[in-house]
Amino acid sequence: MAFLLVYIREAHPQDGWQVSANLQDNVIVTSPRTTGERTTVAKSCQLGLHLSLPMVTDGMDNAVEAAYASWPDRLYVVGADGRIAYKGAPGPGGFRPEEMRAVLGQLLAGGGAPTKPWVTPGAVPGSAAITHPGQPLRPYALLLPQAVTADGRSLLGDAKPVEWREVIPGRLVKYEQQLGQDCVLTAQAQVDEAGEGIVLKVSVKNLSDQPLKALRVAGQLARPDGEAEPLALEFVDCPPGETCEATKTVRF
After folding, report:
1. How many angstroms separate the CA atoms of 46 and 167, rounded?
2. What is the pTM of this model?
């Protein structure tokens, strides 16, 4: 596996779309007019940012930029067969390294481009990103927990959601948090064996000396179209010192 950085047409030249951040950092570049000038700017970028990746420059005909729709910048994965396995959204706002990493993991495992959903920690605490191979640029967002209650009483208090952590790249992420003095919430989201959805498994350990009755954990699945689907997991009464578990499968 090799990584390559292709320097293309300057995104923010002094004689074009200049931005204030460049002025503050004294990165002032005039649009190169020749291959030599472009190479000089590329070398300056590589040295200034201490980049260890091999770098090449696009020709003055901007053929690479046109072929890959890469301006201002973009992430791609090209498989051993020469076919594009992953095309990111325009950067830097569209950079999703976790998506790229999942595709690379799948390719290295010999499975080709992903044909099943994959799951990674989300962009905000308490969320996991679920990506369907049919729409890799539009992941679903699993938000959990949004509510944890027992006997109608909230167990979340002022606890802030923590990060999900990746256990198996693209396949399994976990979440664990203690909620006050009452319980420990543990969750894992894993691609199901059929590759048709995500299995969400949530457990609650009762740390108190009272049973947790009518125990409920709620969250939501935010879809790419902006719609949100509520998710609710109901538990049996959880005795003191015991751990109760509930499972839900999210299909697409």
Report:
1. 33
2. 0.59
Confidence grade of residue 111 (pLDDT, cut at 50, 70, 90): low
Domains held by the chain: number: 2
Q: What is the CATH number of the domain that holds 72?
A: 3.40.30.10
The most confident of 48-52, 85-89, 101-105, 207-211, by mean pLDDT: 207-211
State whether 102 and 135 are in the same domain.
no
Beta-bridged to residue 176, according to DSSP, are 186
Q: Determine the structural domain holding residue 158 and report its residue range.
A: 118-251
What is d(CA 91, CA 124) in angstroms, rounded to the nearest whole number?
A: 19
Q: Which of 61, 84, 108 corresponds to the end of one domain?
A: 108
CA distance 221 to 119: 13
| 60 and 154 share one domain | no
Residue 190 vs residue 157, higher pLDDT: 190
Q: For residues 141 and 222, what is the distance between their CA atoms, to the nearest angstrom?
A: 5
